[in-house]
Write a structure and sequence with these properties.
alpha+beta, 21 strands, Dipeptide-binding Protein, domain 1, 4-stranded antiparallel sheet, 3 domains
């Protein structure tokens, strides 16, 4: 990408911005403009685990607890909590004065309904549900969580910032069918969703919530005081990386949330731009098969994926220079607290003959398989092309179907066969915070219908995952993680494709970006 090309694009961006502005209402004084990694399609953070929806959810909703920068849970909506001597009853009292954007007070009825909805959808929520006997409200601010057996990780679960997050909704929204995304956007968080100025495919707007009262503690990751220091945040959808790079260069945007790796050197050369990491853990790339339908209902076909693929081919295509990526076969992230690679030693390099043999033994006969992807997120699109080529080498017949990212993520929820709108494979990636623990890793949940898109099913893996949660100390937990990992290496709920660091780019007029599992927009100042 040349500077001349960037300047030419910048001229076009100026005209685009003027045209878009003509449709908008007058904006507040301080506006933070951001190019996010994808367009916002799904508004319900309990219905979708995709990052853009999680970012949206954290803007307008809150959770009972929140993870700090070290992924430790701290009270957020909760003022105080306690446990009974037998560790089977937890009591939580909400902070006074919490209210939704429509003016209604937040009560424990809203909390209990919201937690039940989340437990029906999320990996960590489902695990907490297994331990839960019942929840009951003592009054409008205090509720009790009764457990069947002790679970020390309750605050960690209630503060989850990964997968489908346990946001607190109004009771009327939370009692809806958990399998159907809601379209309401009334939370109690520091921002309000501006539906009137939402332009799908172009612009998403959030206004500062003037009624929000932050906690008094300093901000720390997702925890602490969520102090909003701008009047408005605008997400300007720019799927073309060159357009986003030019917009950042000229000041049309203030932050580029996920800059294309090949353009990082270009924007970093500008003295007015800073390129930084906003997470302490690398992200994980995966090739996810659909375990509901042949051939991937057979573990041998899923295992063939591991032998057919070379992580370096995917990572180089997706993220360029090896400075930003590394090979890793750990389901729970190399460099994380659970980063074992036990059982994956045979997948370090491709073994095409073994892949072909396993494919034959799985009963696969060359049927067309749909690999669903999008070029809206360029690395994913490029890695999907690598997947198609790699799998064809060992005998898979791949139909690479490209659409917008919103369509891809909506399709992922379809359990039908590919000719009924379903799918067989997709490439994606998830944050290190999501994947670093057996409790939060959405892909290693093998609880059948309760699992994430792909719906792998293995009772033994679920038994071993439960053993990790039940482990009484760090030493026994480490052993339990290794045993679980060996089982996952055999069953292959997804093919681990390695990991990468994702930088963000900001103009020097912007400061205060917090380290967290996703980009946050409170605490940010703009000069």
């Amino acid at each position: 990408m040349t500077i001349r090309r960037l300047v030419a694009l910048a001229c076009g961006i100026g005209a685009w911005a003027l045209a878009a502005g003509a449709l908008a209402q007058p904006v507040p004084k301080t506006v933070l403009r951001v190019a996010p990694h994808a367009d916002l399609k799904t508004l319900d953070p309990v219905a979708a685990s995709i990052v853009i929806t999680r970012m949206h959810g954290l803007m307008i909703y809150e959770t009972l607890f929140a993870w700090d920068a070290n992924l430790q849970p701290k009270p957020q909506m909760v003022e105080s909590f306690s446990t009974s001597p037998d560790k089977l009853t937890w009591s939580f009292t909400l902070r006074p004065g919490l209210k939704f954007h429509d003016g209604q007070p937040v009560t424990t009825r809203d909390v209990i309904a919201s937690l039940k909805r989340w437990m029906a959808r999320d990996t960590i929520g489902g695990k907490l549900a297994e331990y839960t006997d019942r929840m009951e409200a003592s009054d409008d601010r205090t509720f009790l969580l009764h457990l069947k057996r002790p679970m020390a990780l309750v605050p960690f679960a209630l503060g989850s910032a990964v997968g489908q997050i346990p946001v607190i909704m109004r009771e009327s929204d939370a009692t809806s069918d958990p399998m159907k995304p809601i379209t309401e956007t009334i939370g109690s968080g520091p921002f309000r969703f501006n539906r009137e100025e939402w332009r799908s495919g172009a612009k998403v707007v959030y206004d500062r919530n003037p009624d929000y009262v932050p906690r008094q503690e300093p901000p720390d990751g997702l925890a602490g005081g969520r102090v909003v220091k701008v009047d408005r945040v605008e997400w300007l959808i720019m799927p073309d990386p060159a357009t986003a790079a030019a917009a950042l260069q000229t000041g049309e945007i203030d932050i580029w949330e996920q800059p294309s790796q090949d353009l990082v050197p270009v924007v970093a050369a500008n003295k007015e731009i800073k390129v930084e990491r906003y997470s302490n853990l690398a992200n994980q790339v995966m090739l996810r098969p659909n375990s509901l339908h042949p051939p991937f209902d057979n573990p041998k076909a899923r295992l063939a994926l591991a032998y057919a693929t070379d992580q370096a081919e995917f990572l180089a295509a997706g993220f360029g220079d090896e400075e930003w990526w590394r090979r890793c076969n750990a389901y729970f992230i190399c460099g994380g607290p659970n980063g074992t690679e036990a059982g994956t030693e045979g997948y370090a390099k491709p073994d095409l003959e073994t892949a072909r043999r396993l494919l034959t033994e799985s009963g696969y006969n060359g049927e067309k398989l749909v690999l669903s992807t999008s070029n809206d997120i360029a690395p994913i699109g490029r890695m999907a092309e690598v997947a198609a080529a790699s799998l064809k080498r060992v005998g898979f017949t791949i139909d690479l179907q490209v659409s917008d990212w919103g369509t891809v993520t909506t399709r992922q929820q379809n359990r039908g066969t590919p000719d009924q709108g379903g799918w067989n494979l997709f490439v994606t990636y998830a944050s290190g915070a999501t994947m670093q623990s057996p409790l939060t890793n959405i892909g290693t949940n093998m609880a059948c219908d309760k699992a994430w898109a792909g719906w792998p099913c293995d009772a033994e893996a679920e038994k071993l995952r439960g053993a990790v949660v039940d482990a009484p100390d760090d030493a026994s937990r480490t052993l339990a993680v290794e045993t679980l990992h060996r089982r996952l290496a055999e069953m292959q709920p997804y093919r681990v494709l390695g990991q990468f660091d994702q930088p963000y780019a900001r103009r020097s007029t912007v400061s205060g970006v917090l380290k967290a599992p996703v980009m946050l927009f409170w605490n940010i100042e703009k000069k």
